[in-house]
Design goal:
The structure holds two protein chains of two kinds. By secondary structure, chain A is an alpha+beta fold. Chain A contains 13 helices and 23 strands. Chain A has a domain of 98 residues: BFD-like [2Fe-2S]-binding domain (Arc Repressor Mutant, subunit A), CATH 1.10.10. In chain B, strands 1, 2, 5, 6, 7, 8 and 20 form a seven-stranded mixed beta sheet that branches. In chain B, strands 10-18-12-13-14 form a five-stranded parallel beta sheet. Chain B is globular. The chains are: A alpha+beta, B alpha/beta. The structure holds flavin-adenine dinucleotide (2 copies).
C-alpha cells in the first residue's frame, strides 16, 4: 500500500516523486518504458525559458517564471549542468517590432526579471553569426539551457535514494476507486494507494477521463529537430527565438550544454502519440526556418535529427491539481512547453497540495543531493590522472567522440534507476551521441551492459521492448544451416 | 601526474599505416619509436576484414586482412619496435606533446621529435545523411556490423538492406549471405558504385543480390526493431522521385555511405585540413602544415587498397625518422600548390617542394569526380598544359595514381601551381 502512486516517469513525474519525499510519504512511480525520461522529456528544445512567451495570467506563465528561478539550486543539488546563457527574441524586419514589443510587455506582466530591448548593433556584436537583417531583439538574461534527460534521470535517481520505488516497464492501464482510496492497475499488478498523480504526458487524458467528469483530449503535436556538430560550438552564445508570425510558430537556434547546437522545432498535429518519426518535409522546414536566424547553417554539420511530441490541450494551459469529482487524484496534465522549465515549480506546488490532502508530516531525512557524476570529458589532465590511478576503468575510453570511459558507463548502470539499454547509457553518459553516433562504441556498450546486467548480449536492447540489437550468435546460425543442409 | 616522456618517433594508431610507418622509421635510423593503439591488438581495421583481397600488390598473393596485418606485426616485433595497446591518444599539441590514457599506465604524456598520424577513418553515420523516419534499432554502419560478426561473433539481424555501395557494404553483403542472412538489396544513391568493381562481382553478382543504382532510402519504419525501409528512385539532382517509393520489409539497415578520416586529433594539433579529403593537407614528404607531424593511410585520405596504405605510410615513417633523428624540422616553404581542376577531387599531396618537383618524380593520388570513359588527365603548370595521360576508364571507386616527373618541366621557369584536371578525349 502506497500513499501515492505516480503514473509517468517524465521530468514532471520524477520531479514530483522527489519533491513528495520532503514529506514522510510512501511513494511509487510507474513508468511504462524501460527508462525514465523516455517521452517528451528526452525530445524537446532543452530551453529553460525566461517566461515572456506564455500568456499573462496563466499557470504556464506563473510556473514558468517560478520554475526558472528554482533551476540554479536544483541543478546544483543534482549535479546537472545548467547554463544561464540568456535568450534573444529577434525581430528580423520592421514589421515584427510590434510583436517584439508585445512579448516584452507580456514578460513584464509575467514578472520576468532583467529583460532589455537591444538594438541591431548590440545584437550583432553579441551574436556575429546571426542573420544581419535582424533589426532588434529582446534580451532575457534568465533564459538558460539544460540537458532535459540528464535532469530527469537525476531527479529519478535522487527520488529513489530518498526511498521512492521506481517501477520501470510498468504500464498503468486503469485507475479505479477502492474503499479507502485508489487502485492503479498496471501490466505488472495492482497498486493500492491513497492518492494518484497523473503525470502520463501524452496519455494523461486517458487516466483523467477514467476518473473525472471534467474530460480532456490531448492532441499529440510533433516537433522535429536537427542537431549540429560540436565543431560549431560557440556559433551562438544565447538561445535565439523568432517571433511567432510569418514563418509559423518560430524555429529556434540554441547552444546546448553539450556544445552542440539544436535547431527546431516545427509543430504538426499527428494521430499516433508514440509516433516519433521525423519527416523529410518537417526537417526541411526546420532547416529553412532556422536559416532565417543562421544563414550559414551548415548542412554538412548536421549530425542527427529527432522528433518529440507535445501533449497539447486546446485550452493551452497546464491542468494541475485535484481532478473535479475525484478527490485524491491529482493531475499534472497538458504539460507542454514550458513544462521542462516549470517542472520544479509544478512539483513543488503539487506536492504541497498532496501533502496537505494526506496530512503528511515533513521528512527530516530528505537528502536533496545526488552523488556527483564524474565525467572524464570535463576533468583536467591532473584529475584524469588521479581518477585512473584510483580506478583504472577511467583509463579505458569507450566512446571516442565524447570521451566516455568504461568507469562512467558502469557507474551509470549501477546507480539507482540505472541504465538498462543502449539509449539509457547514451542519455546518461553521452556515449554514442557524438559525431560517429555510436558506430565505434555501440558494440562495447552492449558488452558492458550484458556484463553488468548479467544477461546475454542478445537480450540487450536499444530502448527496451523489442528493440534488440543482435539477433543470434554466429555459431548458432551456422549450426542451424548445417542441420538444414 | 607522470613525467613527460621524450620519444623520437611516436606513431598514433597501430593499423597497417602505423605498422608500415614504424618499420620504415626504424629502417631510416630511428631507434626510439613507439606505436600507440587504442584497441587491444595491433592490426587496425584489418582485424575484422576476414575476407581475402589484401596484399596483391605488395606480397603478390591474396591474403586475408588479419594475415596481411600479421606479416607487419611479426616484422615490428622482430625489429624490437615497442607498441602499447589499449591506449587512446586524447590530445596532440602543435609542439608535439601527446597525451594518452590507458588502464595499465594511466595518463601519459610524450614529447615527440616527430609524430606520424595513422588513426585511420570512421564511417559516416545515419544522422549525417538525414534520413527521416523512426528511431528503430537494427540500423548500423557496415563496419560496426562487421565488428559484431567477425570479432564478437554475433549477427545483427535476419533480413538486411544495405544503403551505399562502398566496399565495406559490399563485403558485408557477402559475409552476411554466408552467415545465412537474406540481403534484400544494396541501394546506391549515385548512378555508379563507389566500391571496387571486383567487389561488386564477387560480393553481389555471384549471390544475385540486386544493386539498385540511383536509389535511396527515404523512410525508416519500426517502433522497436526496424520493420522495413522505403526506397525511392532519385533524379539527376539526387532528389527522390515522388511516386517511385517501394517498401522493403527488413529488420536491419546497414549504412555504407562513406568514410571520413579521424580528424579530431589532427585538428587539436592545429594541422590544416583539406575540405575534400577530410584529412590533413600534406606536402610530398607527407608532412602536415605543422612541422614534425606527418600523416598517412586512411587518416590522410581514404584508400581503397591496403597495399597503397603501406607504401604511403613507409614514406611518412621514413620522413618522420629523418625529421626526428636529424632534428631537421623544416616547414615546406617554397612549395608548389597542387590544385584539383575539373573532374578531379581530393589530390594528395596538396603541396610539393619546388626543388623536388624538378629533381624527383612525385606520386599524386586522387579520385575522379564521376565515372569517365576514354578520359584524358591533364597536368597544368601555372595554367599551361605540360603533360597528358589517356585513361580508358576512371571511376570514383578507384583511386588514381599519377606520377609527376621532372621532365614535364623542361623550362627553367619556376612553377607556382600545378593543376590536374580531367577532360574527354
Ligand atoms: C518539441 C517539444 C519542445 C519542447 N521544448 C521545451 C523547452 O524548450 N522548454 C521547456 O521548458 N519545455 C519544453 N517542452 C515541454 C517539455 O518537454 C514537457 O513539458 C515535459 O517534458 C513534460 O514532461 P512530462 O513528464 O509531463 O511528460 P513526458 O516526458 O512525456 O513523460 C510522461 C511519461 O509517462 C509515461 N507514460 C505514459 N503512459 C503511461 C502509462 N500508461 N503507464 C506508465 N507510464 C506511462 C511515458 O512513457 C513518459 O515517460 C517541449 C516539448 C516538446 C514536445
Ligand atoms: C570492410 C573493409 C574491407 C576492406 N577490404 C579491403 C580489401 O579487400 N583489400 C584492401 O587492400 N583493402 C581493403 N580495405 C582497406 C584497408 O583495410 C584500409 O585501407 C587500411 O586498413 C587502412 O589502414 P590505416 O592504418 O590507415 O587505418 P586503420 O586500419 O583503421 O588503423 C588505424 C588504427 O588507429 C587506431 N587509432 C585511431 N585513433 C586512435 C587514437 N586516438 N589513439 C590510439 N589509436 C588510435 C585504430 O584503433 C586503428 O587500429 C578494407 C577496409 C574495410 C574497412
Amino acid at each position: 500500500m502506497y500513499d501515492i502512486v505516480i503514473i509517468g516517469g517524465g521530468v514532471i513525474g520524477c520531479a514530483i516523486a522527489r519533491e513528495l519525499k520532503r514529506w514522510r510519504l510512501k511513494v511509487a512511480l510507474c513508468e511504462r518504458s524501460d527508462d525514465v525520461g523516455a517521452g517528451a522529456s528526452k525530445a524537446n528544445s532543452a530551453i529553460v525559458h525566461p517566461g515572456h512567451s506564455a500568456k499573462p495570467g496563466t499557470d504556464m506563465a506563473r510556473l514558468n517564471v517560478v520554475g526558472n528561478q528554482l533551476y540554479d539550486q536544483l541543478c546544483q543539488e543534482l549535479d546537472i549542468t545548467f547554463q544561464r546563457c540568456g535568450s534573444l527574441t529577434v525581430a528580423f524586419d520592421e514589421d515584427e517590432l510590434p510583436a517584439l514589443e508585445s512579448v516584452y510587455q507580456d514578460g513584464l506582466a509575467n514578472g520576468v526579471p532583467g529583460m532589455r530591448l537591444i538594438d541591431r548593433d548590440e545584437l550583432l556584436r553579441r551574436e556575429p553569426n546571426l542573420n544581419p537583417e535582424a533589426v532588434a531583439a529582446l534580451f532575457a538574461p534568465t533564459g538558460g539551457i539544460v540537458c532535459p534527460y540528464e535532469l530527469t534521470v537525476g531527479l529519478a535517481e535522487n527520488a529513489a535514494i530518498n526511498g521512492v520505488d521506481v517501477f520501470l516497464n510498468t504500464k498503468a492501464v486503469q485507475v479505479k476507486r477502492n474503499a479507502s482510496g485508489w487502485t492503479v492497475c498496471t501490466g505488472q499488478g495492482d497498486f493500492d494507494c491513497a492518492a494518484v498523480v497523473n503525470a502520463a504526458g501524452l496519455y494523461a487524458d486517458i487516466f483523467n477521463n477514467q476518473v473525472s467528469t471534467d474530460t480532456m483530449r490531448i492532441i499529440p503535436r510533433r516537433g522535429e529537430y536537427w542537431m549540429i556538430d560540436k565543431s560549431f560550438d560557440g556559433a551562438f552564445r544565447s538561445t535565439i527565438f523568432q517571433l511567432p508570425g510569418k514563418m509559423g510558430k518560430g524555429v529556434l537556434v540554441s547552444p546546448t550544454v553539450d556544445g552542440t547546437i539544436i535547431v527546431g522545432p516545427n509543430a504538426e498535429d499527428i494521430d499516433d502519440r508514440d509516433d516519433n518519426t521525423t519527416t523529410r518535409a518537417g526537417l526541411e522546414y526546420v532547416y529553412q526556418a532556422a536559416s532565417r536566424i543562421w544563414p550559414a547553417l551548415p548542412r554538412r554539420a548536421l549530425i542527427t535529427n529527432f522528433a518529440g511530441n507535445r501533449a497539447h490541450l486546446v485550452r493551452h494551459d497546464f491542468v494541475l491539481g485535484e481532478a473535479p469529482g475525484a478527490p485524491g487524484f491529482f493531475n499534472a496534465a497538458g504539460i507542454e512547453s514550458p513544462g521542462l522549465t516549470a517542472a520544479p515549480a509544478i512539483a513543488r506546488e503539487l506536492s504541497a497540495a498532496i501533502a496537505e490532502y494526506l496530512h503528511a508530516s515533513p521528512n527530516a531525512e530528505f537528502q536533496p543531493c545526488r552523488p556527483p557524476v564524474r565525467r572524464f570529458r570535463t576533468m583536467t589532465m591532473a584529475e584524469r590522472a588521479a581518477a585512473i590511478a584510483e580506478n583504472p576503468a577511467y583509463g579505458r575510453i569507450i566512446c571516442r567522440c565524447e570521451q566516455v570511459t568504461e568507469a562512467e558507463i558502469r557507474d551509470c548502470i549501477r546507480r539507482p534507476v540505472g541504465a538498462r539499454s543502449v539509449d539509457g547509457v547514451k542519455r546518461r553518459t553521452r556515449a554514442g551521441m557524438g559525431r560517429c553516433q555510436g558506430g565505434f562504441c555501440m558494440p562495447r556498450v552492449v558488452a558492458i551492459l550484458s556484463e553488468e546486467l548479467g544477461v546475454s548480449p542478445l537480450q540487450i536492447t536499444k530502448n527496451g521492448g523489442n528493440s534488440i540489437i543482435l539477433t543470434a550468435k554466429l555459431e548458432a546460425v551456422s549450426r542451424e544451416r548445417e542441420a538444414e543442409a | 601526474m607522470n613525467a613527460i616522456i621524450p620519444i623520437d618517433v611516436l606513431i598514433i594508431g597501430g593499423g597497417p599505416a602505423g605498422l608500415a610507418a614504424a618499420l620504415a622509421a626504424k629502417a631510416a635510423g630511428a631507434d626510439d619509436i613507439l606505436i600507440l593503439e587504442r584497441e587491444n591488438e595491433l592490426g587496425g581495421i584489418l582485424r575484422q576484414c576476414i575476407h581475402t583481397g589484401f596484399g596483391l600488390h605488395i606480397f603478390k598473393e591474396e591474403l586475408t586482412g588479419p594475415e596481411y596485418a600479421a606479416r607487419y606485426i611479426a616484422e615490428v616485433h622482430a625489429q624490437g619496435i615497442p607498441s602499447q595497446c589499449d591506449t587512446m591518444v586524447i590530445d596532440i599539441t602543435s609542439d608535439r606533446l601527446v597525451t594518452c590514457v590507458s588502464a595499465a599506465h594511466g595518463l601519459q604524456r610524450f614529447q615527440a621529435g616527430a609524430i606520424v598520424l595513422a588513426m585511420g577513418c570512421r564511417e559516416r553515420p545515419r544522422g549525417a545523411l538525414g534520413i527521416p523516419g523512426a528511431r528503430s534499432s537494427g540500423i548500423y554502419s557496415a563496419g560496426t556490423a562487421q565488428r559484431f560478426v567477425n570479432l564478437d561473433g554475433y549477427l545483427p539481424g535476419r533480413r538486411v538492406v544495405i544503403l551505399g555501395s562502398g566496399d565495406i557494404g559490399l563485403i558485408m553483403a557477402r559475409r552476411l549471405t554466408f552467415a545465412g542472412i537474406k540481403v534484400e538489396a544494396v541501394v546506391e544513391l549515385m548512378p555508379y558504385s563507389s566500391g571496387l568493381k571486383r567487389n561488386i562481382v564477387q560480393c553481389l553478382d555471384d549471390f544475385d543480390i540486386p544493386l539498385m543504382l540511383s536509389h535511396t532510402v527515404t523512410a525508416i519504419h519500426g517502433k522497436g526493431r526496424l520493420t522495413g525501409v522505403t526506397i525511392s528512385k532519385v533524379d539527376a539532382d539526387l532528389s527522390p522521385i515522388p511516386g517511385s517509393e517501394r517498401h522493403i520489409p527488413c529488420d536491419t539497415l546497414l549504412l555504407s555511405v562513406g568514410l571520413i578520416p579521424e580528424n579530431e586529433l589532427s585538428r587539436n594539433a592545429g594541422v590544416d585540413l583539406d575540405a575534400t579529403t577530410g584529412g590533413p593537407v600534406v606536402d610530398n614528404r607527407l608532412q602536415t602544415s605543422v612541422p614534425g607531424i606527418f600523416a598517412c593511410g586512411n587518416v590522410l585520405h581514404v584508400h581503397d587498397l591496403v597495399d597503397h596504405v603501406s607504401v604511403e605510410a613507409a614514406e611518412a615513417g621514413r620522413q618522420a625518422a629523418l625529421a626526428a633523428v636529424g632534428r631537421s624540422l623544416v616547414a615546406a616553404e617554397s612549395a608548389v600548390a597542387v590544385r584539383a581542376g575539373d573532374g578531379v577531387r581530393g589530390i594528395v599531396p596538396q603541396r610539393i617542394n619546388s626543388e623536388t618537383l624538378t629533381t624527383t618524380p612525385v606520386k599524386l593520388m586522387f579520385r575522379p569526380s564521376s565515372v569517365r570513359r576514354n578520359a584524358v588527365l591533364v597536368v597544368e603548370a601555372d595554367g599551361v598544359p605540360v603533360h597528358r595521360v589517356k585513361k580508358r576508364i576512371l571511376t570514383p571507386g578507384e583511386m588514381v595514381e599519377l606520377s609527376i616527373k621532372p621532365d614535364f618541366f623542361a623550362a627553367a621557369k619556376p612553377v607556382r601551381e600545378l593543376c590536374i584536371r580531367c577532360e574527354n578525349s
